[in-house]
Every structure is written in C-alpha cells, then in structure tokens.
Design goal:
Largest sheet: 8 strands, antiparallel
Shape: globular
Number of strands: 31
Radius of gyration: 20 Å
CATH topology of the largest domain: Lipocalin
Protein name: WG repeat protein
Structural class: mainly beta
CATH architecture of the largest domain: Beta Barrel
Amino acid sequence: MNETTPFGLITTIRTSFALYAVDSCWSKKGVLSVNYILENEGESISSRLVYTFIDDRGKIKEIIGGNDKLPILFISPKKENCVLLQQEISDQLCVFSVNDALKKEQLIHHEKLDSIRFAGIVKSNSIFYGVDIWNKNREDVLFSINFQNDKAQSEVLQKIPFPKGNKISVRQDEIHLITEVESGWLHRQLDEEGKELKKRILNFDLPFVHEALTLSFTSNSYLLTEENGEIGIVEIDLKGNCSYGKLYDIGDEFFGTWFPVQINKNTSTVQFTTEFGNGWLVIKEDELLELFYNKNKQGYRNLLSNEVLYIDDNDLTISSICPSGDNKIGIIFHPRKSRKEYYNEIYVLQRELAHS
C-alpha cells in the first residue's frame, strides 16, 4: 500500500505472520530492504531472508533468499547492489550480487566478522569497519572487498593499531578515523588496505562526540556532538583549530546514534534514540537542515518547522536510513515491540530534501 504525504511517499509492507527488518541500502530506483520473513508452522517458526526493492513510485519487487545470517547490504564501486552474509550451512562469508536474483560472487576467507558495517567506497574497493565494544583488548578492524571487472575478486582484513573505538568517515576516495586519547583526539588517514598514511592530534575540550560527519586533512572536518540534549557541531580547519557551534537543544540526552549516512558530498543524516523516543537529523556541513523527533509516541515532529509526520499509532522506531536518490533519503520504520513480541509490517518513507 502506498500513500503520498507532504513528507514523501510512504510504502507499507505487510506479511501474514511476522517479519524482522534488518538493513536497507540505496538502489538505482529507490530503496533496497532486507528482512527476515517469519512463518508460523505450528510448533515451530521458520524464517527466510527476503530482499525487497521499493522504487520511487512505491512499486515492489521481491527476491527470495535462504536462511543465511547477518546480511549486510552494500554498494560495489560500480554502484551495484550486493550483500555480505554468513551462509547457513558452512558459516562461511560470501558476497552475493542482488539484482534480478541472488548471484554468488565471491567466497570470503574469514569465517566470521563481528560488528562490521558498510562505510563507503574507495577506488575499486567497498570498505567495511568494525568495533568490538565488548572486548577492550580487541582492535578495530577494516575490511575491504576489491572489485575487478564488476566482480568481487579479493579481500583484505586489517587490524587497526590501538587506540580502538574509532569513528570512521569514508568520502572522496579517502578513509579517516578519529578517537579520543589522553593528549586529545587522534585523527588518522588510512589507505584502502588499512595502512596509515597521516595522523595528527587535535586539542579540544568540547561536548561528547557522537559521530564523524566529515574528516579530512585538506578541507574542514565536522563532528556531531550532544550533551544534556544540546546538539552541536565541531568544525576543524586545515590547521587543526577547532570551534563549536550549537545546533539545537532537544532537552533529552542521546542514548545512541547510528553511523552517518552520506546523502551527497556535504550532507549527512544520522538517526538517534533518547529515553523518550527516536528520530533523525540532517546536517549540511555546519547547518542543521532537518530534525525529526518522535517523543512519547506523538509523531515525528520536525522541530525546525513544527510539521508532524504521523504513521499508524506513532509507536514506532527507525530500523535504518539510506540514500534513495539525488537528495533523497529512505527511512524504514517498524512498530516498537519487546524482543519477545512480533510485528508484521514496516513503513518505508522516501523523502526528498529541499535544501541539501
């Protein structure tokens, strides 16, 4: 079912019993979503992966997968949709292309990669990054899949020297990391195989840094901060000088943020949660373009314009956000449930940004 709203096209996807939203990604005509579809078989519940393309008019095309694990959608350097997943039988990782059907491209020579996520593209490589938040003695890892002739050919897994817990920014064929150290903030640039190219120490005592929106040694860098509900931006110039600007005070502290999604060269979107709800914001360099917050199930209110997006009973959370075209984002919502409860529908909003 599709509904055209002032906020964009909303497509509702329903199943007979239950589903679990996993990930989403840009596709050539809109959004690609991957979900576990659950079936009630009496004494047991079975599941399978389903890849769903939703185009910019809300037309749906589904590709049925298997019962593989940990799917991570990503884009190849030639802008093709792919998925990295752990196969059910062998537990080995494989790369599959996701177009008209699932097609196995490459067997990965690492059986398990914990907590990695797709971070971007550098030259002929799709880049992933992982941080193990549970083991302080385990290094961050950079994982790179190299494509040749439009096919995955090889991969490199590189442990990143301490300190760990880095924020990553992948833009304009460059990989940058930043993390806090005793003497300040360590900013490093890596190549596509994880080797260090440059580094510097930045000195600033500013609110808690949640995400790296942009990092560079040759242009200004921008970090997203928040403390006690005040959202701000740290701007770092070429010489390493840092300045802080307040963006908006929502009054509620962030519980968590997600890796920034790059919409275009200068614009990113970040989803967040608080004690009272969840939402997303859109930032262009040091300018806040949108800030939607669903507090106490009152709908997603754009705090800059006071417009409110209502979906179902508003008791929703955001599963994922992805680009969905030029200056457009796709946002996937699902009903907020406890871990032991099921939901059987998701909502896909395709929203065009007016000022990005």
